[in-house]
């Protein structure tokens, strides 16, 4: 039950973002699947019993949906690639003169489909990598590590996020209450009829929480001179703009040189702004999560995967982007594959999760609990029920 | 510590002020109890101390409120956070984080207290409130009493000089309430904290108070004095005070212990006067079964909520269902209206199996008023609610309206149900359920938040219904209500029936469930002040 061994939430996020960045650099399906396997394995061995830990499956389904949508669009709208191997031809919808360049239906080529598959897979794996951070790190613990200047915005986000599960629980409670009044109706109509009382209840609860937070000192601020406040705003906004531009330059796949320096300057400005803004906050932290060797190893492994794949993209672009015209079987480039496997470090470096003790130690009940777990909605809802 | 100087509060669209010309001084280290009927301005007075009135609620505050020299007009609630700790009625609405330890630390973090101090105070508070075993537990998995203790702990850690509590024990079973009150007493004695507390259940708190402030409502000035002085004139008082008044004791006893030490003379006067029991007065109840429950088991998730419960309910009975928080009282009531499916055993209500009966059919046989009556109400006016109820029940138009008029004379038809007081809302929900004329009526925790007047009205209503042949089952923590109203008491523990029998036998045999009068006059089988008053009247 000791909380100490939990890994810093920021380390998990850096690791996952590293894998996501790596995924964005390649369309090689074998490398992408390898990344997926790495993320999936680490989640499987290092996630806890907490409600948010079961969101990984939802992200995998979401990724599959993205891939399917990409393929459907490629089939229906065709592809700009030359159609060499036509698989089948859909009836083409005649479009007016001004819609030239847009095609609905028509021949479907293997090249186009394959290209869409690779691109869709890239996006899906990127999403799943981000999702793995969500299932490994407690969102509330991450919030505790935010810089003081961002803390209040962070609390607002977390409170907003708990609003939805509360709302679902309320709708269920009120719908059972309708049965007590002798109404049998189900479906959309009954949900609509309870909508008003549910919203009223949610608003009342939000106001009660806001009052409670206010009386407990949320939003106390130390006085700072106006000049410092203005400098803070300029630094933070300018810095974030720099970060956006720099990230775009870095990920845009053109070998521009401005990406890295702009990103660095942006980060520095934003950090300075946040540090300055932190002077307004009087908050202190209770038992902050330490950042130790394990955190360096976990975050380092993710960042290493990203960095090495960016480097590999420069030196072996063909291996990372297998050609689709003509259709060829992709091959697994050994060196980048080895880089990707570096992402497995957390499976060893991160501490094994502390499982909650089974109630009463009844093995049969334990087994039933375990089978119930794959329903994440159920657990989280129960957790938030007022 | 707390000074009110000619304080009046008027809310934006109210015709009369919520507080009018209040002068009040609470010295440091006192436990001050605030009593009065619903709507007398207790919550407003508490809010004025924490700064929520008027900064958060709006309205106009005249006069000045100062807490330890800080004027609440110029200090927002967050600027009073280091001085005043506030706990509202619902602890869940108070929690910002998700585990016990983080919740205890949250207030200190906001105030910027040094990390090593925080660490020490969290440990101290965990010990003070007996929460050490629960430190890593998610807040949503705690019982009601544990949640209330965490809520109190979370405002204690910044070491406030003043603690403001709004009905801290109203949702708790007797044992959990004792737990919370003993913590408060320890704070007042050991740390010198000033506590301002509003509570309807006087029988639980009045003996701990140093001062009592009575807000009579309707614009009358507050009465302030020692508990015995105020109780002598207060329209709201616990049974032990009622007993003292009936027996003519002066000064009035405030606790069972005070009363017992003087009761030998009263017991002697009462010897040979058998208590008039309600069951004997009423015609012998016809054993006509309304519902039967046979070795019922219900699982909630993987946890057995009820296990082997057997119970028969006959026509015209009033049954009190008691037991600690989480003992399965609500589950039993909900199973009787078909909201839970039995995992084993049988339930029949009026000859049908509840969970397999369509809702329209079932409402003619059994009606449940849930813990929060707001769940049942979704129209925007009382009038609309009544019209809906008539349609739902297939009753003649106006049936529900007549019931409301009879139960709640003088209610405004165009009021929004959420703007009614707790007691009025309960009675409106009761009228809605009664529109379908169910022979079996279930009430889940009906006295939560009710003042004595509303409780007395509820007692009258339920008695009348019983005379008309309705069977009533109430799940309640309120031992005084059970003694006053029930013919029979069923005690549940861990989903099993541990006691089932006539009220007098069951409640007098268990100290936790015995009403104050029974404790005072033990071993004589008296339960309520009414019985004693009547017996004394007959004797003289």
TrEMBL record, chain B:
InterPro entries: AAA+_ATPase, ABC_transporter-like_ATP-bd, ABC_transporter-like_CS, ABC_transpr_CbiO/EcfA_su, ECF_ABC_transporter_ATP-bd, P-loop_NTPase. Residues 2-243, 291-519 form the ABC transporter domain. Gene3D superfamilies: P-loop containing nucleotide triphosphate hydrolases (3.40.50.300). Transmembrane segments: none annotated. It comes from the Bacteria. GO terms for cellular component: ATP-binding cassette (ABC) transporter complex. It is a peripheral membrane protein. Keywords: ATP-binding, Cell membrane, Membrane, Nucleotide-binding, Repeat, Translocase, Transport. Its main location: membrane. Pfam families: ABC_tran. It is found in: Cell membrane. One of its GO terms (molecular function) is ATP hydrolysis activity. Probably part of an ABC transporter complex. Responsible for energy coupling to the transport system. Belongs to the ABC transporter superfamily. This is Cobalt ABC transporter ATP-binding protein. It comes from Wenjunlia vitaminophila.
